[in-house]
Amino acid sequence: MTARKPPRKAPDPTATPSAPAAEPTSAAKPAPAAPAAEPALPGSTATAAPSAPAGSATSPAKRKKPAEKRADASPPRPRRGGGRGLRPVRALDDADRGRLLAGEHHAPHDLLGAHMVRGGVAIRVLRPYARSVTVLAKGLRTELHDDGDGLFSGLLPMPSVPEYQLLVGYADNEIEVHDPYRFLPALGDLDLHLIGEGRHEELWTALGAQPMEHQGVTGTRFTVWAPNARGVRVIGDFNYWDGTGFPMRSLGSTGVWELFLPAIGEGALYKFDICRPDGTHTVRADPMARRTEVPPANASVVTASHHEWQDQDWMARRGDVPVHEAPLSVYEVHLPSWRPGLTYRRLAEQLPAYVRDLGFTHVELMPVSEHPFGGSWGYQVTGFFAPTSRMGTPDDFRYLIDALHRSGIGVIVDWVPAHFPRDDWALAEFDGRPLYEHSDPARAAHPDWGTLEFDFGRTEVRNFLVANATYWCEEFHIDGLRVDAVASMLYLDYSREDGGWSPNEHGGRENLDAVAFLQEMNATVYRRNPGVVTIAEESTAWDGVTRATHHVGPGGFGGLGFGLKWNMGWMHDSLEYVSKEPVHRKYHHNEMTFSMVYAYSENYVLPISHDEVVHGKRALVSKMPGDWWQQRANHRAYLGYMWAHPGKQLLFMGQEFAQGAEWSEGHGPDWWLLDPSYAAEADHRGVRDLVRELNAVYTATPALWQRDTVPEGFAWVDGGAAEDNVFAFLRFDAGGAPLLAVSNFSPVVRHEYRLGVPSSVSAWAEVLNTDAARFGGGDVLNPDPLKPESVAAHGHRTSVQLTLPPLATVWLKPV
Question: Is 484 a catalytic residue?
Answer without folding.
Answer: yes
